[in-house]
Amino acid sequence: MTGVTEDPVSAETRRGRPRSAASHQAVLTATARLLTCGEYEYDDVTVERIAAEAGVGKQTIYRWWTNKAGVVLEAVLTGHLRLDFSPVPETGDLRADLLAWVSETLDETFTEGHRSMARSLISALVTGGAETDSLLAASQIWEESPVADRLRAERDVGRLRADLEPSAAAAALASPLVLRLITSGRPQDSWAHSLVDIVLDGAWAR
Amino acid sequence: MTGVTEDPVSAETRRGRPRSAASHQAVLTATARLLTCGEYEYDDVTVERIAAEAGVGKQTIYRWWTNKAGVVLEAVLTGHLRLDFSPVPETGDLRADLLAWVSETLDETFTEGHRSMARSLISALVTGGAETDSLLAASQIWEESPVADRLRAERDVGRLRADLEPSAAAAALASPLVLRLITSGRPQDSWAHSLVDIVLDGAWAR
Amino acid sequence: MTGVTEDPVSAETRRGRPRSAASHQAVLTATARLLTCGEYEYDDVTVERIAAEAGVGKQTIYRWWTNKAGVVLEAVLTGHLRLDFSPVPETGDLRADLLAWVSETLDETFTEGHRSMARSLISALVTGGAETDSLLAASQIWEESPVADRLRAERDVGRLRADLEPSAAAAALASPLVLRLITSGRPQDSWAHSLVDIVLDGAWAR
Amino acid sequence: MTGVTEDPVSAETRRGRPRSAASHQAVLTATARLLTCGEYEYDDVTVERIAAEAGVGKQTIYRWWTNKAGVVLEAVLTGHLRLDFSPVPETGDLRADLLAWVSETLDETFTEGHRSMARSLISALVTGGAETDSLLAASQIWEESPVADRLRAERDVGRLRADLEPSAAAAALASPLVLRLITSGRPQDSWAHSLVDIVLDGAWAR
DNA sequence: GCGTAATCGAGACGGTACGTCCCGTCTTTCA
DNA sequence: TGAAAGACGGGACGTACCGTCTCGATTACGC
Fold first, then answer.
1. Which of A199, B143, B193, D30 has its CA 20 to 30 A from that of A189?
2. Within 13 Å and on the Cβ side, how many CA atoms surround C109?
3. Residue B56: what pLDDT?
C-alpha cells in the first residue's frame, strides 16, 4: 500500500520538529508490511523498496541503520514483525499442552508468510555482521518465549527438575522446528511428538 | 546426483551434444574450494568466480542450476562441501561422550571458517526458493549425522528407549547449537551441558 | 555461387557425405526472409536465428561461411536479397529520366524495409573483414547499375562526353542517396534534383 | 549538447541530485580517446570499457544514452571524435584544388585508423535505431564540410553557378569516397579524378 | 554390400558483452 | 535545515550470441 496513506499523525509532526521519529517508525512498519504481504522474500525487499514504501529517503534509512539486516532485525525485535509463536495452552497437563503447541505451531507457521518471515530473520542475522549479533544476543529470544515461560513455571511448582534450564529445554524443543521451518517442509506430527517425548522423558531406557 | 533442473523425460533420446558431467563436477568442486579456502563468504562467491575457478562458462552453470544457491546447496548435499560435524567419541559412557562431542563441536565450529560455511549454507537455503527446499528435504541431514548414528546404536543395544526416534533426539541436541552458530556467539559450556541433560534425562522431576 | 570458403581443390575427390546444396540454399533464403520481413535489423538476425529459420545446424553455416556478414553479403550478391534499384525510365529526355529515377528511388527505398536491408548490407561490409571486401570488389556494383548502363548508352550515342566514366558518374549520383538512405531521413526533392543538375551540367558557371 | 534521451519537459523543476554534466563529458571524451588510440574497433569498445576509461558507472551511461551507438554518434557529432576531412587547398585553381583534396583524402584516410573510425561511425548509425537517425538528421554533416565551404565561396564570387547547391555538390564528390572507404579498397586516382570532372564539368557533351 | 568418412540437425561448451538492478554515498531542491 | 528525490561509482546478476565441439543419424564413395 502506497499513495493513499497520508497519515494524520505524520502530517502534524511534520511541522516544527524534524520528522525523524515518524520516519523511523514508517521504515519499520513499511518493512513489516512488505515482508508480511507475501509478495516478497528477504532478498526482494530492497532498501530502495522500503524507502519508497515508507515514503522516506534512502539516506534516512542509512542514517539509523547500517544495512537492511539491521532494519529487519529491529522490526522483529520491536514487534513490528512478529515471528508469532503461539501461546502454550494451559490445561494442566504439560505433555498434552506441549504436544498441542507443537501441532499448532506447525500448522500455523508452515504457511508461506511465516516461512518467509523466518527466513528473513535468519537472513538478517546471517548477513548482518557483528552488530546484528549483539542485537540478538540482548534479546534473550529463548528465555522470553512462551515455552520457556511455561517450563519455568512448571519447574517452580516442582513438577520439573529443580536444576532444569528452561531456556535450554525450550531451545531443544523449538530450534528443530525453526530449522525445519526455514529449510525442509513440514515434518510428520509423529516426529514432532517424539521431540516432546525426548524433552520431557529423556532418551534413557527405564 | 544430478542438477536440480534435471528432467526425467530427457532420459530418453536427447539430441545434440550431451551435457558435460565433467563441467558439472568442476563447478561443484570449484564452489567447495572457494567456500573452504577461507577467503570468501557466500556473498563474495559470485557465479562468475565459480565459473572462472571451474574453467567453465557462466551459462553452463545456469544450464544446470537456477541460481547460485542451488549450486552451493548441491555442493553441500553431495558432500563436496562438508559441514564437518565431529564424530562422537566412543568411550562407552554415552553422557560423557555427548558432552565431549558438544564441547568439541563448539570449539571446532566456532571458528570463522566454519561459521562462514554455515552462513553460506543458510544463505543458500534462504535465497534458493522452492526447488532448493526439495533438494534439502530429500537429504536426511539429521538422520545421517554422527549423533543420530550413535543414538541409534545405543537404542539398538537397549540402553535407550526402544521407541526413541534417533533423528528427533539428534535434532533436539544439534539444532540449538546450529542456530547459535549462525546467530549469536559461542554459548556457555554449562548451557550446552544442560542440553545434553535434557536430551538424556528429560525434564520431569524424579 | 559457392560460399567464400569454398576450396576448388576439395571439389575433386571428396570423401564422405557431400555437402548439402539444399542446406546452402535454405540458409540464403532464410536470411533473405528474415531481413525482409521487417521484423529484424541486421543485428537482430543472429546466426542462430538463421539456422533455426533455415532448419539447419549452426555448424553447417560456419562450414560454408566465415561469419554472418558473409552470409548476408552472398544473399545480396546472389539476388536472394535484392537492393532493388529501380530501372531508369526511357523517355529520351535524359535529365527528365534521371529526375524521375531519383524521385522514384527516394519514394521506393525510404520505406523501413529497404532502409533496413541497406543497413544490413553496409553492416555486413563494415563488420565482414577482408574477404567480404573482395566479394564486393568483384561485384562491380556501380558498373552494373541501371544508372551506369543508361549513362553508358547515352555516351555511346554521343550525347555525353566521350571520356565520361559512367561508373563514376553513377556513383556521384547514387552514393549520396545511399548514404542518406542509411543515415538521415528522406532528403528534399529539390536537394535530389540539384544532384542531377550537378552530374549533368557540372558546377561551373556558364 | 545534451544526450539523446533528454526530455524537454524535465527542464522545469527536477527533484533530486542533478545529472552530472562532468560525467557526461567524461564519457564522450573517453569514447573518443578509445576509438582514436588505434587499439580498438567499434565492437571492441564495450560500454564497460568506456565506463572504466571515463571513471563512470555503467548505469550513468545508460541514464544518458540508450546504447553504445548513441554515445559514439554523439561523440562524433559534437566533435569529440573527428572524422577529419582534410582542408581543401587554396591555390585559386578550383579544379586543381579539388583534385589535390581528393588525392590527399584518399591517402590520408585509407589508413586503418581512419577506416576503423569510419566503420565505427557507420556501425553506430546502423545499430543505433531511430533516435540516432534524428541526431544525425540535425547534424548538417555535408553542409559544414570543407568542400561545401569552398564550393559555397566560389559560387559567391560568381565562378560557380548561382543556383548551385553546395551541399549537394559536396555530397556528389565525397559520398562515393566515403562508400569506397568503408567497403572496397582504395580506388584508382583516375576514378577519383573522373569524379571531380563530373562535379565540375557535368556529363553533357559540349 | 560394407566399412569409412564427412555431412547433417541439434544443442552444450567456454567466452564475452549486454542491459538491469541494487548497494551505500553524494548532492541538489523544497518545505 | 532536515529530509525527499534521485544521480553517482561500483559491481553482480541472468540472458543472448559468438564460434567451436560433440553427439547420434544419415549419405555417399571405395574396396
1. B193
2. 27
3. 97
Whether the beta carbon of D44 falls within 7 A of nucleic chain E: the reply is yes
User: Domain A8-77 classified CATH 3.40.50.720?
Assistant: no
Task: Output the nine-digit C-alpha cell for A195.
Answer: 521431540
pLDDT of A119 reads 82
Question: Which among D158, D185, D199 is the nearest to C203, CB-wise?
Answer: D199
Find the angle CA(B134)-CA(B136)-CA(B139) to the nearest 5 degrees: 115
CB atoms D201 and C200 under 8 Å? no
Residue ranges per structural domain of chain A: 8-77, 94-201
pLDDT in tens, A154-195: 999 999 999 998 988 999 998 898 888 777 777 888 888 899
pLDDT (tens digit, 9 = 90+) per residue, C138-169?
A: 666 777 788 999 999 999 999 999 999 898 99
Tell me the residue type at D112.
Answer: E
Q: What is the CATH number of domain B18-77?
A: 1.10.357.10
Contact residues for A84 (Cβ-Cβ < 8 A; gap 6+): A108, A109, A114
With CA atoms as reference, report the closest residue to A146 among A93, A83, A70: A83
Question: A89 vs chain B: nearest CA distance in angstroms?
Answer: 18
Report the distance from CA of residue C30 to the C1' of nucleotide E3 in Å, as an integer.
36
Q: CA of A175: how far to CAs of B151, C73, D70, D95, in Å?
A: 19, 69, 57, 94
Q: Would you give the DSSP letter of residue C188? A: P
Q: Does position B7 have pLDDT exceeding 60, yes or no?
A: no
Is C154 within 8 Å of C94 (Cβ atoms)? yes
CA distance D122 to C182: 9
Residue range D95-133, pLDDT digits in tens? 999 999 998 888 877 676 677 777 787 788 877 766 777
Residue B72 has pLDDT above 60, yes or no: yes
CA A40 to chain CA mean position, Å: 17
**Joined grid coordinates for residue D54:** 571515463
Q: Which amino acid is at A176?
A: P
Query: Per-residue pLDDT for C180 more than 70?
Result: yes
The stretches of chain D forming alpha helices (DSSP H) are 21-36, 47-54, 58-64, 68-77, 94-109, 112-127, 130-137, 146-156, 166-182, 189-201
Per the CB < 8 Å rule, is B198 touching A199?
Answer: yes
pLDDT at C35 over 60: yes
C1'-nearest nucleotide to the CA of D44: E17
Residue nearest to nucleotide F26 (CA to C1'): C17
- C186, closest residue in chain D (CA to CA): D137
Q: Read off the amino acid at residue C102.
A: V
The CATH class of the C20-77 domain is: mainly alpha
- The answer to whether strand E lies under 7 Å from the CB of residue B50 is no
Q: Do D183 and C119 touch (CB under 8 A)?
A: no
**Separation of alpha carbons B197 and C202, rounded Å:** 109
In this predicted structure, the answer to whether residue C11 has a pLDDT above a threshold of 50 is no
How would DSSP label each residue in D58-93?
Answer: HHHHHHH-SSHHHHHHHHHHTTSS---PPPPP-SS-
Please indicate whether chains C and D are in contact, defined as at least 3 beta carbon pairs under 8 Å: yes
Pairwise CA distance, residues C128 & C67, whole Å: 7
User: Cell 581528393, residue?
Assistant: D102
- Lowest model confidence (mean pLDDT) among A141-145, A201-205, B120-124, C198-202: A141-145
Q: Assess whether A49 (CB) lies less than 7 A from strand F.
A: no
Give chain A's largest Cα–Cα span.
72
Task: With CB atoms and an 8 Å threshold, state whether B161 touches A206.
Answer: yes
Query: In this structure, is the CB of residue B63 within 7 Å of any atom belonging to strand E?
Result: yes
- Integer Cα distance of B56 and B47 in angstroms: 11
- The confidence band for A48, taking pLDDT boundaries of 50, 70 and 90, is very high
The CATH homologous superfamily of the domain defined by C94-201? Tetracycline Repressor, domain 2 (1.10.357.10)
Q: Does A158 contact B205 at a Cβ distance shorter than 8 Å?
A: yes
Domain C20-77 identical in fold to domain C94-201: yes
| End-to-end Cα spacing for chain D | 49
